[in-house]
Automatic annotation (TrEMBL), chain A:
<dbReference type="InterPro" id="IPR001017">
    <property type="entry name" value="DH_E1"/>
</dbReference>
<dbReference type="GO" id="GO:0000287">
    <property type="term" value="F:magnesium ion binding"/>
</dbReference>
<keyword id="KW-0560">Oxidoreductase</keyword>
<keyword id="KW-0786">Thiamine pyrophosphate</keyword>
<dbReference type="InterPro" id="IPR029061">
    <property type="entry name" value="THDP-binding"/>
</dbReference>
<comment type="function">
    <text>The branched-chain alpha-keto dehydrogenase complex catalyzes the overall conversion of alpha-keto acids to acyl-CoA and CO(2). It contains multiple copies of three enzymatic components: branched-chain alpha-keto acid decarboxylase (E1), lipoamide acyltransferase (E2) and lipoamide dehydrogenase (E3).</text>
</comment>
<feature type="domain" description="Dehydrogenase E1 component">
    <location>
        <begin position="54"/>
        <end position="337"/>
    </location>
</feature>
<dbReference type="GO" id="GO:0009083">
    <property type="term" value="P:branched-chain amino acid catabolic process"/>
</dbReference>
<comment type="similarity">
    <text>Belongs to the BCKDHA family.</text>
</comment>
From TrEMBL, chain B:
<feature type="domain" description="Transketolase-like pyrimidine-binding">
    <location>
        <begin position="5"/>
        <end position="180"/>
    </location>
</feature>
<dbReference type="InterPro" id="IPR033248">
    <property type="entry name" value="Transketolase_C"/>
</dbReference>
<dbReference type="GO" id="GO:0000287">
    <property type="term" value="F:magnesium ion binding"/>
</dbReference>
<dbReference type="InterPro" id="IPR005475">
    <property type="entry name" value="Transketolase-like_Pyr-bd"/>
</dbReference>
<dbReference type="InterPro" id="IPR009014">
    <property type="entry name" value="Transketo_C/PFOR_II"/>
</dbReference>
<dbReference type="GO" id="GO:0016491">
    <property type="term" value="F:oxidoreductase activity"/>
</dbReference>
<protein>
    <submittedName>
        <fullName>Alpha-ketoacid dehydrogenase subunit beta</fullName>
    </submittedName>
</protein>
<dbReference type="Pfam" id="PF02780">
    <property type="entry name" value="Transketolase_C"/>
</dbReference>
<dbReference type="InterPro" id="IPR029061">
    <property type="entry name" value="THDP-binding"/>
</dbReference>
Length: 384, 343
């Protein structure tokens, strides 16, 4: 049995940067608490990488939202506002590590280095997953809530068995922590000491249902404690805290000490998707308050005040982000090339005879001779 | 050397041989370790192969199934046990939304070579939630292979093939057959997935069945030959997906009559699918409508009443009797339903 005090999350979310970009170091109580938990503000060089990733990720996200309005995507769940949660944990992953994203984590996929058009394939609707999960060590974006957490636990345990030194990072939202598979995944990973890190992006809403109707937990991070899982909560709009906490979680898991649950307190600035109307369930005052806590603004202010970032560099990265978005725009405006016969290719390693018959039927339909085709072969003449 | 081998021993040996030959094979589930599984199918595997190869898991079927998916991503071949068919339902979302679809949604880049073993169906006097026939849910889900061996030889051979398969396999082990025996020399190889077997050659009627009802079908065929002079051909499907239309249709075209026998409740089940496929392919050869024999359309009954529910030899023979043997349509009875009608 683990000592419960070693599992408990920080009573307040871990934070290094206040919303205006000033540091929390002026508060000796806070500084001592963070130091005692093994966190320190990351090096400027690392924070610059996170800042750049967020600037490009944010631009990608707003571009994807625009493409949805132009009808180029079937749907797009934006992660604007959650940029620090999307970028810092992914940049801190190693190449051998696996990522298990949800439908809201497209920004994380782009940060992972996945081609943005491949990342948007699911949401454009030309296939369910556009990238190679094995080559990118990134599972398909998962829509059934929390089901990917048990996959991540299994993959983490597989890496433990193989001795690869890899960890699995599972993304999940606040609403999905009510689902059973979240709990089963944490429990399995704990029992097998699997190197799993689960990041809850608590963006306060499950579509329209607020956190208060989702859970009575003092913080979602406490849900790990019952499973013997080290747990933490962090200001999800503070990129410095996100990077420090996630690095510590990966180190814990990688060292064989078992899984870690991290809850990031953040906010979904956009509606659930373009099909949603957020004005029906939240106030503009609430949204305005979170606008003042923007993670990109926060980190940029800190880096500028430190002299680590100047206008020229800001402009340079802004141009890189524009170029990235322009490339996405151009390629997404091209009509996707789809082949209906590809539907039959990967149902099984070898199609069943029945599927082969249906493939022939569809081939004939496409050829415009549907009247000549039928899924059932002609019966033999009467034999009696 | 051939010796009497139970169905359960054949499965145990298949697991052993797979564990020996392929280091990526893992066996896990509830109680499969020290206990050897509630039906003892994994008996001695932890002792002989170690905790790393055969191990107990927390008691959570969705967790077991999802965990196996993740292990597949790291190159393992998990064989998981669901303990009882009706205990598999918590894992249904994992099976339907992920196990069955992963190859398709990733265009063949991520495959799930896993076997889901289900002690399956009734006839063992089990209490509530221990005797479901759940194959209908799985055969209706594209992306899964669904297998139900009826003999010890097939139990061995089909389990080896399932473990070697690059696709997920739902492996249904009839509980009522675990202690059935055959003279057998292991290892053995029978026909591969997708091939049905003619278990008894006959000329008058084809009785199509699988899994737990194969022995019943053979008993009914012997009685029909002795008492009614009906020569019944018995076809054992062996694998429900992929389905062997060829063998089934060839048999029915030869005999001109067909009865489909399945233990599950009948409505919209596997028996309906087989009956439809036979009607579509063999209409001109049929002297009578294709009839079904099944369990009843109700929740599985308490053990003392299960023999009322289960299709027995009488229900099979009564159904065969309704196949218009005089070549005159019998208009006094409804053709539908499974109710016994005495000819």
């Amino acid at each position: 049995m683990s000592d419960i005090t070693s599992l408990l999350p920080c009573p307040q979310p871990v934070r290094f940067l206040d919303p205006d970009g000033s540091t929390t170091e002026h508060d000796p109580g806070t500084a001592a608490t963070l130091e005692a938990r093994g966190y320190s503000i990351p090096a400027e060089e690392d924070l610059l990488a996170v800042w750049r990733g967020m600037v490009i990720g944010r631009r990608f996200d707003t571009q994807a939202t625009a493409l949805t309005k132009q009808g180029r995507l079937a749907v797009y769940p934006s992660s604007r506002g959650q940029d620090a949660c999307q970028v810092a944990p992914v940049l801190a992953l190693g190449e051998q590590d696996w990522l298990f994203p949800t439908y809201r984590d497209s920004m994380a996929l782009v940060t992972r280095g996945i081609d943005p058009v491949e990342a948007l394939t699911l949401l454009r609707g030309d296939w369910h997953c556009g990238y190679d999960p094995v080559a990118t060590r990134t599972a398909p974006q998962c829509t059934p809530l929390s089901t990917q957490i048990v996959h991540a636990a299994g993959a983490a345990d597989g890496m433990r068995r193989r001795g690869t030194g890899g960890v699995a990072l599972g993304f999940i939202g606040d609403g999905a922590t009510s689902e059973g598979d979240f709990h089963e995944g944490l429990n399995f990973a704990a029992v097998f000491d699997a190197p799993l890190v689960v990041l809850v992006q608590n963006n306060k809403y499950a579509i329209s249902v607020p956190l208060a109707k989702q859970s009575k937990a003092p913080a979602l991070a406490y849900k790990g404690v019952g499973y013997g899982v080290r747990s933490e909560q962090v200001d999800g709009n503070d990129p410095a805290a996100m990077l420090s906490v996630m690095r510590s979680a990966y180190a814990h898991a990688r060292a064989g000490h078992g899984p870690v649950l991290v809850e990031a307190h953040t906010y979904r600035m956009e509606a659930h998707t373009n099909a949603d109307d957020a004005t029906r369930y939240r106030t503009s005052e609430e949204v305005d308050d979170w606008t003042g806590q923007d993670p990109v603004v926060r980190l940029q202010a800190y880096l500028v005040a430190r002299g680590a970032l100047d206008e020229a560099r800001i402009e340079e990265v802004r141009e890189q982000a524009e170029a990235f978005a322009a490339d996405v725009r151009t390629r997404m405006h091209a009509e996707p090339k789809v082949d209906p016969m590809a539907l039959f290719e990967h149902v099984y390693a070898e199609p069943t005879p029945q599927l082969r018959e249906q493939a022939e039927m569809v081939r004939a339909e496409i050829a415009g001779s549907a009247h000549a085709a039928h899924p059932v072969p002609e019966t033999e003449e009467a034999t009696r | 050397m051939s010796r009497p081998t139970t169905y359960a021993q054949a499965l145990n040996t298949a697991l052993r041989d797979s564990l020996t030959q392929d280091e990526s094979v893992l066996v896990f589930g509830e109680d499969v370790g020290a206990l050897g599984g509630v039906f003892r199918i994994t008996d001695g595997l932890t002792r002989d192969f170690g905790e790393e190869r055969c191990f107990d898991t927390p008691l959570a079927e969705a967790g077991i199934t999802g965990f196996a998916i993740g292990l597949c991503m790291q190159g393992f071949r998990p064989v998981i046990e669901m303990q009882f068919d009706a205990f598999g339902y918590p894992a249904f979302e994992q099976v339907v939304s992920h196990v069955a679809k992963m190859r398709n949604r990733t265009r063949g880049q991520l495959t799930l070579p896993m076997v889901l073993r289900y002690p399956y169906a009734g006839g063992i006097g089990g209490v509530e939630h221990h005797c479901d026939s759940s194959e209908g849910y799985y055969v209706h889900t594209p992306g899964l292979h669904v297998v139900s061996p009826s003999t010890p030889a097939d139990a061995y051979s089909l389990l080896r093939e399932a473990i070697a398969s690059d696709d997920p396999v739902v492996f249904l082990e009839p509980k009522s057959l675990y202690w059935s025996k055959a003279e057998l020399e292991l290892p053995t190889r029978t026909e591969p997935f997708g091939r049905a077997a003619v278990r008894r050659v006959g000329s008058d009627v084809t009785l199509i069945t699988y899994g737990p009802q194969v022995p019943n079908a053979l008993r009914a065929a012997e009685i029909a030959a002795a008492e009614e002079d009906w020569d019944v051909e018995v076809v054992d499907l062996r694998t429900l997906v992929p389905f062997d239309d060829e063998t089934v249709a060839a048999s029915v075209r030869k005999t001109g009559r067909a009865v489909v026998l399945a233990e599950a409740q009948g409505f919209a089940g596997m028996g309906a699918e087989v009956a439809a496929r036979v009607s579509e392919r063999c209409f001109h050869s049929l002297a009578a409508p294709v009839l079904r024999v099944s369990g009843l359309d109700m929740p599985y009954p308490p053990p003392i009443l299960e023999h009322t529910y289960l299709p027995g030899v009488d229900r099979i023979l009564d159904t065969i009797a309704r196949l218009q043997w005089d070549d005159e349509p019998d208009l006094t009875h409804e053709a539908a339903g499974t109710q016994a009608v005495h000819a």
